[in-house]
Amino acid sequence: MAMVTDLGKILMFISLNLSNVKCHQMHQMLKNSDKIPGEISYSEASSFLHVSKRSVIDFCVDISQEYICENNKEVCQNNNEGVREIYCANRNCSNGLTCYLSVPCPGHYETGCIADPCKSFPCENGGSCSKTLDSKANCTCLPGYYEPEYCNLDCFPGPADIVFIVDVSESAFVNKSMEYVKHFTQNMPIGPDDIRVGLITFSWTAKIEFGLEDYLGNTTLQEGLDNVTIEGGGPTLLADALKLAETVMSQASIGRPSWMQRYVIVVSDGMFTDRYPAMAQAFKMQVQGIRIMAAGVGSTVSHNNFLNICNRQVSDPTGVHSADNDDLLNTVRKGTTHPECKNCMHRTDSDVVFLLDNSYSTKSIGYITEIMRYIVSNLQLGQNNTQVAMFIHNTNTIIKFPFDNGFSKDSLKSAMSKVSLEGDNSSLSSALQYMHLNGFSTSIGARQNSRKIVIANINSVITDIDAVATELRLLLSEEIRVFLVMTEYTPSADVRTLIKSLTQPFYLLYVPTSEYFVSLRVIDKDTIYYECT
Question: For the chain, what percent of residues have pLDDT higher than 70?
Fold first, then answer.
């Protein structure tokens, strides 16, 4: 940086030519000098101050650098709040005057009173102050999430624009989708300077139900959602709905800050029939800085389609979530608040159990272990990140290796490859019950407050499907998420029955061939999340 070079020149100059000059002699010399080598301008010093919090410049507080301070007094007067607070603590200025550092250099700080409220440094986080005609301070904040009065951090979400696109086609769960939108918006501050919300419905055509400027309060927005009349049915064409969302955002962008976040949230089962036009339109919007996200809801969910529209790179699966929890809501809350705000904590501590049916009735055990190895390759492993354990079940459920196994990714994948078939039959419901009772015991290294996930394969006939549904609901009530991975060998009758009985179909993954492995990325996405208060 230029400042470092200039300071180096100053120090060399002083050491070679002024080594015998005492502090106050130097003070007098510098007072009588127009400029010394290495003097920096106010603009140069100010360039170091555009940071999130007030800075202290070394030469304003370091007595050995007083000679620099003497030539940059205005800089130190305006950027030495810590010292000013100490020296002004016992000084009362009358008639509305402000205590300030009249002499701001460390050899002889002095205070005075002045009719300038900006000398008390009221503007936080790099904000600039100006004096109004009635002698009050007016703060101009840097772009970002700051309260306008004194530029304090504003840790409420917003400003941001969110357009929901709700699927009302024949395959959609329209009522559940609308309930999700209501729940989401009830937990966000709605207003012209906070979060603005628009709504589009789509099936074979797309319709703007209301725009971003129609409902600018929480109460009126909820009333607007209640008054939406759903007219759906037919096929699911998403591309036109995305184009409408782009138009809605463009028309309402005047006066909005350029750094503001913009989201399109598709609430659907992902079974749209215009996959490639939708992908092309989504990509176009992402280039413009519009984040495309999805909340999966429906009897079945196409994770592949969602991943293709939500992420310019499939290696980032963070845009696809279930509508049955608040992961998407919390991701948006974090994305629309200042990075320094602490109301949303980034969590990476997840305990993941692989529950493998290795009975003789299981078909293609090699393909199942290949799926599990793929999942492991995308997990973020570590003591403070994801831990993995493995259980196998046939006649009984037994542990293959615990959470605190110390395995690397390669070691985990190697251990999974060595599973062989044994046992004449298996009971998925019994294995799930075992997960509930013992799968996340601290005795095998599970952590008490971690997110808990079970990944189970269904690759043979389920003989106890009603009991399986009961155990899944019980695990869900204990906040244990269960991903059921199906392959081409999973009996279709079992699939249909499971779909009817599952309360969260989002967690049912169909992976008939390796081409569908991308859908498994929603699993590693679930291990990293935000927890907001």
Answer: 87
